[in-house]
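Tutorial handout. Part one gives the primary structure; part two gives the three-dimensional structure as tokens.
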Amino acid sequence: MLASSIPPSLLILLPFLLPPPCHPADIIVTSDPSVRWVELHGAPLSHLVLDPGTGRLYVGGVDHLYQLTSDLEVMSHVKTGPHLDSPDCLPPIVPHDCPSATPTHNHNKLLLMEAGQGAEPGSLIVCGSLYQGICDKRSVTNISQLIYQTSNPVDTQYVAANDPRVSTVGLVITTENKQEGGGTGGVMRLMLVGRGYTSKGPGDIPPITTRRLFPVVPPRRAFSQEEELGKLVVGSYSEYNNHFVKAVAHGNHVYFLFSRRDMWHKKEYRTYASRLCISDRSFYSYVEVPLLCHGGYNLAQAAWLGNHSGEPALFVIMAAGQASTPVATSRSALCVYGMAKLDAMLLRAQEVCYTEGGRGSSGQEEAYIEYAVSSKCLKLPKDSLSEYPCGGEHTPNPIASAVPLPATPTFTSTTQLTAVTTATEAGHTIAFLGDREGRLHKVLVRSDWSGDLYGSLSVNSGSGVSADLLLDDSQRHIYVLTNSRLSKVPVSSCERQTDCQSCLAVRDPYCGWCVLEGRCSRKHLCRRHMQPNHWLWSFEPTNQCVTVQSLQPANQSKDEQTQVTLSVVELPALSEAESLSCIFGLLPPQPAIVMETSITCQSPAPELLPPMPTGSDHIILPVSLVFGHVTITTGNMTFYDCGAVSRLNQSSQCLACVSSLWRCNWCPLDQLCTHNHSCPNQHIILNQRESPGPTSCPLVFALQSSALVPLGLSTTVVLRGRNLDVYTDEAQYLCVVEIEGVQFNLTAVVEKSQDNTNTFTCSPHQFQYAVGQLQYSAPVYLRRGERRIDTTPGLRLQLYDCSAGQSDCSQCRAVPEEYGCVWCPGSPTPSCVYNQSCTSVPEDTCPPPQITQVQPVSGPLEGGILVTITGSNLGMRYHDVVDSVTVAGVQCLPQPEGYQISTRVVCELQPSGKQRDGPVLVTVGTTPPGKSTQIFTYQDPQLLDLVPDKGPVSGGTRLTIRGRQLLTGQKSDLRAFLGPQPCYIVEEVNDTQLVCQTGSSNQTGGVTVRVLFGKAERTIPLVTFRYLDDPVITDATPAESFYAGGRAIMVTGRNLDVVQQPIIAVWVEPVEVQRVKRRRRMALLTAKQQLVFNSTMTTVSERCSVLSSSQMTCLTPTVTPEVKVKGLWFQLDNVRVHYESIKGKSFTYYSNPEFFPLNREAPDAPYRFKPGGVIAVEGQDLTRAISRQEVTARLGDQECEVKTLDNTHLYCEPPEIQPVSVDDSNELPSLKVFMGNLQVDLGLVQYDSDSLLSPVPLAAQISLGAGAAVIILSVLVVILMYRRKSKQALRDYKKVLLQLETLEINVGDQCRKEFTDLMTEMMDLSSDVGGPGLPLLDYRTYAERVFFPGQQVAPLSRQLDLPESRRQTVEQGLQQLNNLLNNRLFLTRFIHTLEAQQGFSQRDRGYVASLLTMALHDKLEYFTEVMKSLLQDLVQQYVVKNPKLMLRRTETVVEKMLTNWMSICLYSFLKEVAGEPLYMLYRAIKYQVDKGPVDAVTGKAKRTLNDSHLLREDIDYCAMTLTVLVKNGVEVQPCPVKVLDTDTITQVKDKILDQVYRGAPFSQRPPADSLDLEWRSGQAGHLTLSDDDVTAVVQGRWKRLNTLQHYKVPDGATVALIPRSQSSGGVGVNQVFQTGEKTPMLEGEEEEGLRLWHLVKSSEDPEIPKHRKSSMRERERAKAIPEIYLTRLLSMKGTLQKFVDDVFVAILSTKRPPPIAVRFFFDFLDDMAEKHGIDDPETVHIWKTNSLPLRFWVNILKNPQFVLDVQVTDSIDAVLSVIAQTFIDSCTTSEHKVGRDSPVNKLLYAREIPRYKQLVERYYSDIHSAASGCYQEMNSTLTELSGSFASEMNSLVALHELYKYINKYYDQIIMSLEEDSSGQKMQLAYRLQQVAALVENKVTDL
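Part two.
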């Protein structure tokens, strides 16, 4: 519960804290912040009811009921479950009477309001799924108050469905109480309930019932279903399983909406609407019509009765069903059905059925009687419907229309829609739709029924919306119920839009702009919405917002006041009494005069206008048109200030004034810019817009003297002006020059010329400025008295100083001539001065160039790099040096962009052709050239080699390129490339090596290494750099370390050796930062990503060692305990792999293990140790982050072998003799433990010595010695014997311990290695298996092997053996027999009669069943029906005896029929799904078995799962590879084949054939005994090898089969298989395929009294061959632990585990739909159990197991040769038997208990069986819970199968074989047929006699 404790203000914020919703791209889904919600218990919440009077809400869910206010505050909360219940028991529940009762959740099924009587408040009806769906009544004011509840309900009070998945709908109606009120017209309240069919509990509750609510007078009960109250009578409850969606009342009728299978027509699922008169207590008026929603939408999901275009209509959400099932897909639609049309359809169906016998005018069937009841449509008088609109006793019912009511979808969705409600707004219909992703869609339904989606809102992402979607009373909010949340969503957000534009942009049918109220509102809230232009609709705006098109005038002077006219579009009309006003900016409103579309206002008084902004000459004020307080529209008006125009342009006030945008004029005499057309002193210069042409402003327009003014020289400035005649006063003119902020005033002399211009000569002046630059621009203007005369913009004096910046002659002479600068050689030093300032003669030419630096001083032979030469006098311009630079005698081309006058030349080096050196020369003009002191060298750099030569495509490899003269040119000229990708130079380059880091490449492969020296390219001859695939890390273990680090992480992956420097790195962060962070957790929520690269983070890293391409070890870095480890990663050059991405979990650092000193009492004292024992070290957390194998201990200079390590102890075994100390300061050795980087010194160790010196005197010693000698001697003997025994026992124990540990390690390693080998082999294999490689048997062979196992010649392969003269007659007879078999009565009688005969054996039963399968293969539907009826008889028999034993064996004909039926139906499943994993398992077993020795005589193998077939001897064998010559067409190709040296010759031949014919079916390869194996050595050496020949070894009565070892065939020998010559006498181990069995071997030998053996002798006393003497010790070990070889079984199991899993999963997975036959048959068994009242789930589980896994799959698992064309040898068969037994154990319900005495085979799979059991149980339950009703699909499948394979069946032979049985029991069969009355009618006996006459010429008493 959330909202109950959260203040409402925060509720509004909650959506912001949620993650953003995700949704399809085509709909813009928003999260509305104004949505309130409350989280409730009881998910999934199913029902929501609104009390219209009070606005209270009631919510029903699982085990919870809530009562809330309209603002979602919880008022009351009731728990309704869980309680002890079972759907199989009737309440009240008594535990010992109902053993199946368990605590069960109570799902709310009905939640309805019942109105009160008179002043009563009414009640809330609540029905749950517990106690057979009984109901309570609760108070509407407080739901925790019960008004009615029954503690002991009767069966008529069961209302709702007791199954959470089955729907229930209800409706409360009020009607007149005719019976009880005695005609007084009392009120009667009833509840109509529609519910689906439930398979458990009372099965006789009709789909629709009427329940009493009020009045309840004893003996009547509330909610009871009484005889007189009416119900919908149905013939079959399970067939008419209506899924109810909605019940509504409209007019005088009640309507139910539901979907179900159409039992009358196509058996597809459809949606129906049915109708009843409210007053009809007997359901005479019941009529239903199918609803059609075009587009394949057939299953109703939700509905709402609303209005459309003023007419009532039913809005239905429809979903498309999954092919022929009631399961809805996500494809769904909204379809709308007008109630008038629906009523018309229902009336039409009623009328046709009443008066026209159900047929329309064209004779088509239009109405019929539904629900399998005995009524039919009639032809009553025409006025029957008007006389009996609600039917009567004589009218037919229930009626169904055959004609559907169609509709076109209004809206479709790809997400499943789940809810609908509608609202009418301003005459428009709006539908609100909920979907299963928690979204609410808003759709405008147009008058033509089309829909327009205008908005979607995510209410509760990912949680489906419940069908109860309700609007509140004000129609302003919608209540949305999702899985565990109730939300209150506003229907629109109009009020959030604040202006007209945004209001129209939301495109919401609820919204519109209310112009005179200035708000976005719903239409009815806008007072004048009826008048045009007053309310503008948002959804489809036909008219735009009110706008100001233009203002007249648009701008005016701030100093005047005028009338402003606004031209306005779409102005709404006002009444005469109303007026508008104008508001300028923030000024008070002015009245406005409206004239049609123009509005006139007075502009504001100048003094009211706001001041001008600084730096601006105008201000823009909004002009708003206002109605009352509402702004209707706004325009903009500009007010300008002419005075500001001139103030802002001091240099040319008049020009600025008259050329401004505004209408400003200039008064020259007043120095005034004004908007007026007159000046105070008359003269005026008008704005240029009014008087175009040249300006008449008084103006200084030019300089007559030169603008260039040298410094320090007295200069006269002359100015020219015009239009100065306007000034008549006597004022004096002054020239003003401004230099660096200082004004220089110079008197001016005026001269007037003819063209009305004036010349002003300023007094001479010597100008100075302090800035160190060549030139300074100084403004100059004229002043007359106080008036400043305008100057043309840009009129300035250019003051200059020749000496500034011109430091040498060339620079000086480069200054443009007009400046008059010269190089003056005067004292004290030569300098650049103005020509008139030079006292001596200026220089004509400059001194020769001087070079101070050349960079670089070397370059490649090809040139192409830039050389920079710096110095002085390097020319006055670029052209001076164009062809005058040489470098080491070679021209160098100067570049214009790099040239700086006199000081720098940049030139491009040209090719030299050879290595040379020399100075750089620059020549300028005729002066001698300048020569550098540095020598420039032309070099030929060479690249020699590259380390490393490979790296990952992501880059990051540091390449070292070695060479000579690599320092050629500048470093910036040097670039390295790998193919097209740059290699970034990372270190200082020296002459012999260059280091660069590779970038990423987009492909793998070799690339050339190129180094560019400028444009010169060098490569390494014959060397390429190989880009290889990036390293991939697949595993890194272990996943933890301690802080000290140094723990080895074994990293496995691919391409690890590609990496140059793999690194393991750890991110750490100081703990203080952690604490601060915790405090700031909330603030940092958003910045979470940045945390990782926080500046406080540091990394610690270690290098890793690469062992191979697939393995490397990394030692964990040391981390101090003061930091927190934030993450660990591997940096493989540029590839970064985070540990989390490898293992899915983070790497953990733990605190260091803690060790205690050996001597805890006195740590400094040495620890005393008795040799022969172990040292026990104590500690804490010793194994938390390390294993025993990683720990070493050293005592002094020797190892102390670590034997055991647990969390608190370490035991190590030190050497026998005390080791030497490694510490010079102490003689005693100390014990040190090493764990990674952790080294712990645990203290000194001192060995106890036995030779303690005796203090007794010599004489006493002698006498004591003599006296005690005897005693000591005898005690010593005893002690010695005891110690020897105990030491021996200890040694043995330690040895066993060691053996076991070694064994465990070895088995694990073995398994891993074996599995890797096998996977490699199987990967090769899977490429074969994909297509034609799967050797599947054709259907005929498959059927033959399954129907007739073990028969040499099956009837399928035989032909009818008859003399030609009789063939036609017999075939005719057999055809008649076939017809007879197609008579169900004959067939069942025939089978029952045969089974009743004594001599009819079990084998006969199976044979007859298979013959019948063959004969009826073309009519599988019929065959199935017969099989079902026979099985029903079988169930009947077993129910009486013990139902659990049914189908356990195949003792009856029908059981074998079932086997055959399953085989037929599952052939395609085998072909498409299960065949491949089965074949892979077979191949894996074969590969594994063949890898080890297999005894050819006993069939025992080293590698097996079957302990009875385990070769327990330790056989020495070697794997070898033979080269087999295989003839391929004409050429002979060698083919390598792996064999063992212990293989017999036949075994070798088989392995060769396996390899050569790999992937080919077994039947298509030659048999091994038809070929000879020839060993070829050299040119002529051909030796034929065989299992038995004269060389065979005979010992006593034992003869050994020849092996490769016997013939001493070497590894790699060449052999060939050649066709056997007839004379060849070699006898092979004959392995003829015969359903898995073998013929006896070498029978001849056995007769001679010799016994054959291969690897082990089969008798109990095997002699030890001489060559095995050496391995006696192994034999001893084997005896020490007798079962040591059983680990082979474990190893084999581990290797095959994946393949076994794959087969089991393929058989038992429901990820893909299980085969239809399985679903059909399991349904049938469920029905049988239900029919016979068997409610023990174990029994049904046993039936299913006996009918499918044990009957079919175990057979296939044991005998893959039934399906695949393969050979199953004894050793493979032994393995398959164990797997099949495991499968059997997995299917049983009994608990799988194993103990010490259990068979090894059971122990082997003890851990897997519970997992497989779950797989079986899930398989059964998934099939059970999936929608049933696959009969139609099954029939079509059977029809298809009949057609596909019937031609393969030899039905005549089958019929002939069947006839033999008829003949054998002829009299009994005839008698049985004659006893049966139906058989007599059908003349079955007579027809059989006719058959006998034809087939056998039998004379009968016809």
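Part three, for discussion. Residues 944 and 1021 are 8 Å apart (CA to CA). The longest helix spans residues 1258-1333.
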